[in-house]
Amino acid sequence: MLDILVENGKMLTPAGWSEKGYLTIEAGKITALETGAASPEIYRSARQVISADGMAVLPGLTNAHTHLSQTFMRGLSGGRPLMRWLKELIWPLQGAMNIEELHLAALLGMVENLRCGATHVVDHQKITKTQDYSLTVCSAAEQCGIHLTLARAWADTGSNAESPINILNELETLFERYQTHKLIQISSGPLVPWRATAETLQRTHALAQRYGSATHIHVSETNEEVKMTLDSNGMRPVSWLDSLGILGPDSHIVHAVWVDKEEMLLSKKRDALVIHCPVSNAVLGSGFAPVYEMQQMGIRIRLGTDGPASNDNQDCFENMKTALCLAHLRELDPTQLSPTDVVEMATAGKTLSKGEPADLILVNLRNVNATPVHNIDSALALSCHGNDVDTVIVDGNVLMLQKKIQGFDESALLKECEQAALNLRKKLAWD
Predict the structure, then answer these.
(1) Residue 129's Cα: distance from chain center in Å?
(2) Cα–Cα dist 425/327, whole Å
(3) Helix (H, G, I), strand (E, B) or coil at 224
(4) Cβ count near 78 (within 10 Å)
(5) Side-chain-facing half-sphere of 209: CA atoms under 13 Å
(6) What's the rounded Cα separation, in Å, for the pair 274 and 254?
(7) Is there a contact between 111 and 54 (Cβ–Cβ < 8 Å)?
């Protein structure tokens, strides 16, 4: 028998959007993707039938950069530039968090991502006092059922630096533990170029490559950070990473707000992945990333919300609209970047295809903020919000159906998180 039949939806296929079609799911894979109505035989063989009438059906979105611990830190970004915000608020809060609090914060963040249509989240996991902190984030992903890439953060110079041996040992243990996991992947997550030594960057990157993984690193988020790298290494950040042999298809360059033309050309030449965080960059006043210019060069680009402390949510639809608006505003040109471009960035370039993993979402287009729909990509990028996501399926499992999270008590989770956040404030004597 079929596990799931999704019917009457507008499907995002390799050929574009199809009118009224259906797909079937079996053993975690899409087994059929057709236009028109399903046959009576297919109906009878399906264990579950989900109506997508009035909805867009598309691959689940990828939130390519966030910090799940920061769900407990919302609303703290106002009036502070990046470095002051980190030193005065974020680093103290991260330092005070215990494992139970991190687990709740991560679980809350994953549920938020699911509600906003993300089926894959890349968490730059900064709280690494012991390996159990990273393990509890992975445990939360298993509990939630979402795809997680945990980029284990590290710095081997500056405040709270770790020893290279500890960084390498913990990374290797995590890589070994999750190398065959269906939902969880690990990557190396150096925080920033100016807090990492060349040797440790090269060794951790080589380790990640050995496990078929990547290096995920904040780069050129602010002008101040570019100067820090120039002062410490004598080169601009992207150029320095390239000189070390790290810039390539398995490097994730997060932010890239203040990259110059030479760095963009290097990123294209090495096929590096740039992760654009438009809302966070705007909230913190960090600047406009030259996304249109990078896209025109053929640089691969994905979208990340960044952490809820600097966004202050993880709504991937808001992220698409902001990316589009900022690209237009940067050059005062509305032809720069299209809705189709940002939908492609948000879906990591995926479409629905037979034989592919059944990671998909249903987005309600029949609502007051999207109707009438003249163009589906425009509706998704400019009219829809995270709360228009109706159903989320990951690896063939229905994790949200008709806006109801399946499998655990969301209301109880919210109450636990509220209390845990209050306790965290008390520990810091903020009340």
Answers:
(1) 23
(2) 38
(3) helix
(4) 9
(5) 13
(6) 6
(7) no
CA distances from 280 to 32, 259, 322, 330 (A): 39, 17, 10, 16
Interior/surface letters 331-365, b for 16+ CB within 10 angstroms, e for the rest:
eeeeebbbbebbbbbbbbebbbeeeebbbbbbbbb
Report CA Rg, the chain.
21
Residue 374 DSSP one-character state: S
Element (H, E) at 151: strand 147-154
Q: Which helix or strand (DSSP H or E) is residue 309 part of? A: none
Give the length of the chain.
431
For residue 24, list its beta bridge partners.
5, 32
| Two tokens, residue 352 | 């629905």
Q: Identify the bridge partners of residue 149 per DSSP, sorted by sequence position.
A: 122, 185
C-beta neighbour count of 366 within 10 angstroms: 12
Q: What 3-state class would DSSP assign to 425? A: helix
DSSP string, 11-37: EEETTEEEEEEEEEEETTEEEEEEESP
CA atoms of 408 and 410, how far apart (whole Å):
6
Instruction: Give which of 196, 216, 198 is closest to 208, Cα–Cα.
Output: 216
Contact (CB, 8 A) for 312 and 74: yes
Strands 273-276, 300-303: pairing is: parallel
pLDDT, position 159: 83
Reported as half-sphere exposure (CB side, CA atoms, 13 A), residue 283 has a value of: 21
Q: How far apart are CA 88 and CA 311, in angstroms?
A: 17
Environment class of 241 (CB within 10 Å of its CB; exposed 0-12, middle 13-18, buried 19+): buried
**pLDDT under 70 in the chain at which residues?**
77-82, 431
Determine contact, residues 322/279, Cβ cutoff 8 Å: yes
For residue 1, the surrounding DSSP H or E stretch is none
At how many degrees (to 10) do helices 131-144 and 164-178 cross? 20
Report the alpha-carbon distance of residue 168 to residue 256 in Å, rounded. Answer: 26
pTM: 0.96
pLDDT computed for residue 83 by the predictor: 73
DSSP-derived letter for residue 286 is: -
Question: Is residue 190 reached through a cis peptide bond, with omega within 30 degrees of 0 on the bond before it?
Answer: no
